[in-house]
Design goal:
Structural class of chain A: alpha+beta
CATH topology of the largest domain in chain A: Arc Repressor Mutant, subunit A
Strand content of chain A: 15-25%
Oligomer: homodimer
CATH architecture of the largest domain in chain A: Orthogonal Bundle
Number of helices of chain A: 5
Number of domains of chain A: 2
Radius of gyration of chain A: 17 Å
Mean pLDDT of chain A: 87
Largest sheet of chain A: 3 strands, mixed
DNA sequence: TTTTAAATTTATAATGATTATAAGATAGTT
DNA sequence: AACTATCTTATAATCATTATAAATTTAAAA
């Protein structure tokens, strides 16, 4: 009946995660909005569609997704955790003036040196802060 | 009389920060221990020497240092902010098994692409997670 | 279809890092 | 010494996250 839902469910089942309604909706949200949402943003957006949604469910689900490698935590700020649907490797730029977060392409392996050759690498985060072009122009 | 204290004081004065006893001690701590301490670690270590020390002072001072570019925030975990005395650019590796944090050399500019050419860059963070050699051997 | 058990979701309370506020202490200046 | 601004401290407030237990849903069995 609903092809999209089925595809999302399949993704979850492949990871041994039961495809509950909430989980499908949260996964859909993450795959659609690629703007590193906070838990709060995810919750307040989805609660419009799922009025009974609880913030604990969002936390639980994101934790599940993280374990299953469907989602990664974006390490940008220390006060609010942000999440990304696992996609191609990219870095994050945060503007200190307007607070916007920009993605940028990155050759994720180019900066790895021999010093890590005996380490098992599971994830890479590149985070740059500064002023974005828009805010630079304002000054 | 105390050459070391004088040097630390000078660093602060150059940044227009009044060299109070607490500030000098916190700066000294950061420069000596380069293990990305949390606020809690800094406080509990220093309170032995300065019994009247308040955690609020540690927060205030680190904030001052950050503004003055003496210190940078290490973006590793989201639940506990860690601080580094500003030194040569390096990345951080966190072992998911034992929790240790390793520094590693990086060619900080090699991974910057054209996509950021119109951005003003103030800081760069590279954070990698995985398993360290010691924990790999245990398995 | 009902029953039952397991898993999931929800509401609520607890925790813990950080921030805000105001009172007290300190240092520099006239 | 008195005055003033700054710094430090203690305390309370905030806010994201985690823990807990009850309620609901799901899936399987009878």
């Amino acid at each position: 009946m609903n092809q999209k839902i089925d595809n999302l469910a399949k993704i979850l089942i492949e990871k041994n995660i039961k495809p509950s309604y909430q989980r499908i909706k949260i996964l859909e949200y993450l795959l659609n909005k690629k703007n590193h949402p906070t838990v709060d943003k995810i919750f307040s957006d989805l609660v419009k569609e799922i009025p009974t949604l609880s913030k604990a469910t969002v936390y639980n689900t994101l934790d599940l997704f993280k374990e299953a490698n469907l989602t990664r935590i974006v390490t940008i700020e220390n006060n609010e955790t942000r999440y990304d649907a696992k996609v191609s490797s990219h870095g994050h730029f945060k503007c200190e003036s307007c607070g916007s977060i920009f993605d940028f392409e990155i050759n994720i392996d180019s900066f790895l040196t021999d010093s890590l050759e005996h380490f098992k690498i599971n994830g890479k985060n590149v985070y740059i802060n500064g002023i974005c072009p828009g805010c630079l122009q304002k000054d």
